[in-house]
Amino acid sequence: MYRVLVADAINAEGLQPLLDYADAQVIEKKVTDTEVNLKEIDAILVRSATKVTEELLEKMPQLKIIARAGVGVDNIDVNAATKRGIIVVNAPDGNTISTAEHTFAMMASLLRNIPQAHASVKNLEWKRNAFVGNELHGKALGIVGLGRIGAEIAKRAKVFGMTVLVFDPFLTKERATSLNVQSCTLDEVLEQADIITVHTPLTKETKGLINETAMKKTKKGVYFLNCARGGIIDEQALAVYIGNGHVAGAALDVFEEEPPGEHPLLKFDNVIVTPHLGASTKEAQLNVATQVAKEVRTYFEDRPVTNSINLPAMSKDIYEKIRPFHHLSKQLGSILSQCVKEGIDELSINYSGSVTELETSYLTKALISGFFKNRIDVHVNEVNALLTAKERGITVGEKISTNSFGYANCITVTAKVENRQFSLRGTYIDHYGPRIVHMNDFNIDFHPEGNLLYIQHMDRPGVIGRVGKILGDHAINIATMQVGRKEIGGEAIMVLSFDKPLDSTALQLLSELDDIVLMNQITL
Ligand SMILES: NC(=O)c1ccc[n+]([C@@H]2O[C@H](COP(=O)([O-])OP(=O)(O)OC[C@H]3O[C@@H](n4cnc5c(N)ncnc54)[C@H](O)[C@@H]3O)[C@@H](O)[C@H]2O)c1
Ligand SMILES: O=C(O)CC[C@@H](O)C(=O)O
Prior knowledge:
Blueprint (H helix, E strand, L loop, with lengths): L1 E5 L9 H4 L4 E4 L15 E4 L7 H5 L6 E4 L9 H6 L3 E4 L5 H17 L1 H9 L17 E5 L3 H12 L3 E5 L5 H6 L3 E2 L2 H7 L2 E4 L13 H5 L5 E5 L8 H9 L3 E6 L18 E3 L8 H19 L15 H24 L6 E8 L6 H13 L12 H7 L3 E7 L7 E8 L4 E9 L3 E7 L2 E5 L4 E8 L4 H11 L4 E8 L5 E8 L5 H8 L4 E8 L1
Parallel strand pairs: 1-2, 1-3, 3-4, 4-5, 6-7, 6-9, 7-8, 9-10, 10-11, 11-12, 13-14
Antiparallel strand pairs: 13-15, 15-16, 16-17, 17-18, 19-21, 19-22, 20-21
Helix pairs in contact: 4-6, 12-13
Bound molecules: nicotinamide-adenine-dinucleotide and (2R)-2-hydroxypentanedioic acid (2HG).
């Protein structure tokens, strides 16, 4: 039974995919609630209130997935989650329209003094001259960050007869043309726009992007809007520039600290504010809750999540294609780990044939996670596989080659240790399944599943018989047996499979046999 902690106020109807899932227990409580046993939680659903810090993650050793019912993941320590192999998902487009509409409502309110006029009439005043505003029509709107929300604002601005100037370093010419906006440098936006609205994520690069230096470059009488994240526009600089009359006004839905408390910006009449309401509509909340609830359920059902921050996105169709190779990669990693017990310096993975059409980097991560499984007590999956390898000093190399050794596809992995190397090759055969076809330079053919024994021995008469006798004496039934050799009288290998693992006595007796060079029990 998976335990899912819903730590923030998330739309109840949207949680239905999880409530309907028999294998999940949904707990709607804050992380600070003493009734919650954080140690048992498998998934956590948050909005922006709960800060998923490294400290919190340390208290949640079972946590497998963090779901953000919204876009911004700046309240989640994604690096710390990645290090622990915890998947982070969000709901990237569920609140786009609501936030764009809110930004637009703020812009119209700001230029027409609607909140101030509203408060005045409620105060039994009728000051028609005090609230003369400005039209949006004919104004140049500067958009910083033309992603999902920025693009929706651009579309609305065009309908209102505005010119749209955009600064987004990742904006392509095609997208700018299709949205009918002018792609500009940040300075051009600052110098030419009448109204500037920011729609980037909060990152190291965007924190303080609109600071005092930037404000100096703007037109006198410019308006600023921030419905993205507090801190993208430097609050102290904004207060100075509103105070000295250079900036005509600002509309803010977000603050560096939320709630902002006694904040200098709140003292200005021409600063209008909302308490982080961009995504607060019934529609957006239902959308984002449903999206993340479905993602978490998908994850529990061992299917690929679609909106992960720390895993590659994969459609259902692609996943179906990659699934057999994903399994094979994990098995290759696990076999290798059980055959090479010492520390490894390098893992080289070579893909050939049809598998090269797939996302091989995902398979490399799966192989590494299979390698670390049962080797270290950190949970390693596709999220933290490369990081874990790097931390343990293992160089990972991935190559694509054209030689698939007569098979339709091949994955070959070679582990390099100080003075030896061990390689394994697997293939996936349609309607037949995964096969290991090459092991430590020997051709072989076995199904990588269950309880296996790998024996490398001298190719001499009687070796197989002596192995069989020990197993028979211990009432151990051999399910399958494959042999391979390079040359007569040289070294050879056998791979046997059993219904259950061998006990230590049988293993000991086998290892003492003459002519046995190497022996590894493999459990898959
Ligand atoms: N107020 C709210 O309730 C609310 C709701 C939803 C989203 N948001 C915020 O809005 C942000 C944007 O959301 P979105 O869905 O449009 O995200 P998005 O990822 O679709 O768009 C972000 C855009 O910013 C651009 N960008 C990144 N770094 C930049 C930089 N240094 N300079 C200029 N542009 C840069 C990216 O290229 C991208 O086009 C989110 O990160 C979130 O913080 C707020
Ligand atoms: O949860 C919310 O209401 C805010 C969401 C918003 O900030 C986001 O980044 O999606």
